[in-house]
Design goal:
Strand content: under 5%
Shape: rod-shaped
Helix content: over 70%
Structural class: mainly alpha
Distance between the termini: 82 Å
Order of helices and strands: HHHHHH
Length: 183
């Protein structure tokens, strides 16, 4: 009779363990989704700033049509990107396009002194900082989640319930760090 109780106790402990690991994986997955949502919010904020910035610069710089088209094209591609790797690649293109735009703006002293341009610079600089923070939060959440589903014995529960590794949000080497908006 006592052997039966030992078996029942082991089974109950095993079920409790599986439930605890499963709930932990759900919490980690939700943190990743929350981190991604924060990145999305900050990227949308940046997308909203770009047309105003382009229009402000256009008022002063009429002969740089290629730069404006590049920024607009990069913004459109980034808005339509799906999945973490595609979004990261599209954001790298946006960052490079914005760098080109700011490089063009450096040649126009009147533009650099324009209050609208300065306000947009300030807003974009703050947004870039928030994007960097959101990326770090997301990548930390992905690291914790991936470690948990790949480590023993969590990998047993993760495999049984089809938890799969998530992708990091990675910047390429040319776009590391925020966009420089200093004049």
């Amino acid at each position: 009779m006592s052997a039966l109780w030992i078996v029942v106790a082991v089974l109950v402990l095993a079920v409790i363990y599986v439930i605890a690991v499963y709930n932990g994986l759900i919490r980690r997955r939700n943190r990743i989704d929350e981190g991604w949502a924060q990145i999305d919010v900050q990227l949308q904020r940046r997308y909203d700033l770009i047309p105003n910035l382009v229009e402000t610069v256009k008022g002063y710089v009429e002969h740089e049509q290629g730069v404006f088209e590049e920024v607009t094209r990069a913004r459109t591609a980034a808005i339509g990107a799906q999945g973490v790797p595609a979004q990261a690649e599209a954001e790298n293109v946006v960052t490079n396009a914005l760098r080109s735009l700011f490089a063009v703006a450096e040649a126009y002293p009147d533009l650099k002194a324009n209050q609208n341009f300065l306000a947009l610079q300030e807003e974009l600089s703050g947004t870039e900082g928030r994007i960097a923070y959101a990326r770090q939060y997301y990548n930390d959440a992905v690291r914790d989640y991936n470690t948990k589903i790949q480590s023993f014995p969590g990998n047993l529960v993760a495999g049984a319930f089809s938890f799969t590794p998530r992708d990091y949000f990675e910047a390429d080497d040319t776009t590391r760090g925020p966009v420089s908006v200093q004049f």
